[in-house]
Recover the amino acids of this structure.
């Protein structure tokens, strides 16, 4: 029984981190399109998204600390992350020409790859899943996988 409870807690913690990654991408997107500060956006997400309810249901509970770490790393390391992303993209499509949701996703994932202890393969899998949430038709998730794999191999070559 004890191992079942521990397994359930581990699964719940993973789901909370996954929700935090989705929220981080949304927050980074919102910062870009609205011009709001990181402080304003993170405060809004923590107040109105994490575990909040709305007419059709409720938002998933997220890991606030992980959310803050991802957004903070993405903002603090944005120049380096954007350079990694540019090198992973085809030369004709620099980061400023790609979809803003994908740009936010690459920045969030890049924050984890550059400044956090998340294993690269975990980060890639998690952000491919985030891509599928935004782009359910599927071709973007393959693109995200390829770009993140390139970024991860450059950022953390020792992991491969």
């Amino acid at each position: 029984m004890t191992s079942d409870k521990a397994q359930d807690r581990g699964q719940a913690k993973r789901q909370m981190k996954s929700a935090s990654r989705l929220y981080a991408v949304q927050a980074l997107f919102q910062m870009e399109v609205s011009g709001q500060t990181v402080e304003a956006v993170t405060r809004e997400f923590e107040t109105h998204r994490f575990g909040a309810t709305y007419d059709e249901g409720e938002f998933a509970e997220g890991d606030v600390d992980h959310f803050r770490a991802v957004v903070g790393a993405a903002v603090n390391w944005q120049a380096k992350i954007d350079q990694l992303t540019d090198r992973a993209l085809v030369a004709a499509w620099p980061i400023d020409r790609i979809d803003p949701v994908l740009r936010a996703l690459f920045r969030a994932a890049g924050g984890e790859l550059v400044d956090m202890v998340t294993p690269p393969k975990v980060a890639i899998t998690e952000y491919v899943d985030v891509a599928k949430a935004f782009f359910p038709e599927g071709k973007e998730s393959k693109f995200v996988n390829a770009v993140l794999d390139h970024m991860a191999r450059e950022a953390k070559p020792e992991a491969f």
Remarks:
- The two ends are 36 Å apart (CA to CA).
- DSSP finds seven helices and two strands in the chain.
- Helices lie at 2-34, 38-48, 64-76, 78-88, 100-115, 120-134, 139-155.
